[in-house]
Amino acid sequence: MAGCASAGSGTVSPYEAIQHVSRYRSVCGTVADTRYVAIEGNTTYLYFERAHPGHPFEVVISGSIRGSFVERPERLYMGKTVCVKGRISLAGAPRIVVTDRGQISVTEAASDSL
Q: Mind giving me the DSSP string for 58-96?
Protein backbone atom coordinates (compact mmCIF):
# COMPACT_ATOMS: atom_id res chain seq x y z
CA MET A 1 0.00 0.00 0.00
CA ALA A 2 1.33 3.43 -0.88
CA GLY A 3 2.67 5.34 2.08
CA CYS A 4 2.14 2.49 4.53
CA ALA A 5 5.46 0.68 4.41
CA SER A 6 7.51 3.79 5.12
CA ALA A 7 5.29 4.98 7.94
CA GLY A 8 6.92 2.86 10.66
CA SER A 9 6.74 -0.45 12.49
CA GLY A 10 3.55 0.44 14.40
CA THR A 11 1.76 0.94 11.09
CA VAL A 12 -0.91 -1.41 9.77
CA SER A 13 -3.12 -1.46 6.70
CA PRO A 14 -6.87 -0.84 6.97
CA TYR A 15 -7.40 -4.58 6.40
CA GLU A 16 -5.04 -5.50 9.26
CA ALA A 17 -6.60 -3.06 11.75
CA ILE A 18 -9.14 -5.66 12.94
CA GLN A 19 -6.21 -7.66 14.36
CA HIS A 20 -5.01 -4.67 16.42
CA VAL A 21 -8.18 -3.61 18.28
CA SER A 22 -7.37 -1.90 21.61
CA ARG A 23 -3.80 -1.15 20.49
CA TYR A 24 -2.25 2.20 19.60
CA ARG A 25 -1.29 2.05 15.91
CA SER A 26 -0.97 4.10 12.74
CA VAL A 27 -3.35 3.00 10.01
CA CYS A 28 -2.56 4.14 6.47
CA GLY A 29 -4.91 3.91 3.52
CA THR A 30 -6.81 5.75 0.84
CA VAL A 31 -9.94 7.65 1.78
CA ALA A 32 -12.53 6.18 -0.59
CA ASP A 33 -15.67 7.72 0.91
CA THR A 34 -16.63 10.33 3.50
CA ARG A 35 -19.72 11.36 5.41
CA TYR A 36 -20.59 14.42 7.47
CA VAL A 37 -23.44 13.91 9.93
CA ALA A 38 -24.80 17.07 11.53
CA ILE A 39 -27.31 15.20 13.70
CA GLU A 40 -24.46 13.20 15.29
CA GLY A 41 -22.76 16.29 16.73
CA ASN A 42 -21.23 17.41 13.42
CA THR A 43 -19.24 14.19 13.16
CA THR A 44 -17.15 13.44 10.07
CA TYR A 45 -16.40 9.89 8.95
CA LEU A 46 -13.55 8.93 6.62
CA TYR A 47 -13.87 5.46 5.09
CA PHE A 48 -10.68 3.75 3.96
CA GLU A 49 -10.28 1.69 0.76
CA ARG A 50 -14.00 1.18 -0.01
CA ALA A 51 -17.22 3.17 0.21
CA HIS A 52 -19.51 2.83 3.20
CA PRO A 53 -20.79 0.24 3.93
CA GLY A 54 -18.20 -2.45 3.28
CA HIS A 55 -15.16 -0.41 4.27
CA PRO A 56 -12.44 -2.19 6.28
CA PHE A 57 -11.61 0.82 8.50
CA GLU A 58 -12.97 4.24 9.43
CA VAL A 59 -11.79 7.45 11.03
CA VAL A 60 -14.19 9.40 13.22
CA ILE A 61 -13.62 13.15 13.60
CA SER A 62 -15.78 14.75 16.27
CA GLY A 63 -17.50 18.04 15.66
CA SER A 64 -15.58 19.57 18.57
CA ILE A 65 -12.34 19.57 16.52
CA ARG A 66 -13.86 19.91 13.04
CA GLY A 67 -13.20 23.68 13.03
CA SER A 68 -9.46 23.16 13.58
CA PHE A 69 -9.00 21.80 10.04
CA VAL A 70 -8.06 24.22 7.22
CA GLU A 71 -10.85 22.77 5.08
CA ARG A 72 -13.83 20.52 5.80
CA PRO A 73 -12.25 17.10 6.57
CA GLU A 74 -14.58 15.27 4.18
CA ARG A 75 -13.17 17.39 1.32
CA LEU A 76 -9.62 17.73 2.62
CA TYR A 77 -8.92 13.98 2.76
CA MET A 78 -11.19 12.52 0.06
CA GLY A 79 -9.18 10.44 -2.45
CA LYS A 80 -5.91 10.93 -0.58
CA THR A 81 -3.68 8.39 1.11
CA VAL A 82 -3.50 9.28 4.76
CA CYS A 83 -2.16 7.88 8.01
CA VAL A 84 -4.07 8.24 11.24
CA LYS A 85 -2.61 7.51 14.67
CA GLY A 86 -4.54 6.40 17.73
CA ARG A 87 -6.10 3.54 19.64
CA ILE A 88 -8.07 1.22 17.38
CA SER A 89 -11.57 0.41 18.61
CA LEU A 90 -14.36 -1.63 17.11
CA ALA A 91 -17.83 -0.29 16.33
CA GLY A 92 -19.01 -2.27 13.34
CA ALA A 93 -15.72 -1.64 11.53
CA PRO A 94 -12.36 -0.99 13.18
CA ARG A 95 -11.91 2.74 13.79
CA ILE A 96 -9.79 5.43 15.31
CA VAL A 97 -11.53 8.38 16.92
CA VAL A 98 -9.52 11.52 16.25
CA THR A 99 -9.30 14.00 19.13
CA ASP A 100 -6.56 16.19 17.61
CA ARG A 101 -6.00 17.04 13.94
CA GLY A 102 -2.31 16.15 14.41
CA GLN A 103 -3.33 12.49 14.44
CA ILE A 104 -3.97 12.61 10.66
CA SER A 105 -1.34 13.19 8.00
CA VAL A 106 -1.51 13.04 4.21
CA THR A 107 1.08 10.68 2.76
CA GLU A 108 0.01 10.88 -0.87
CA ALA A 109 -2.24 13.37 -2.64
CA ALA A 110 -5.02 12.24 -4.93
CA SER A 111 -4.11 11.72 -8.55
CA ASP A 112 -5.20 14.47 -10.94
CA SER A 113 -6.71 11.76 -13.14
CA LEU A 114 -9.38 10.81 -10.54
A: EEEE-HHHHTTSSS-HHHHSTT-EEEEEEEEEEESEEEE
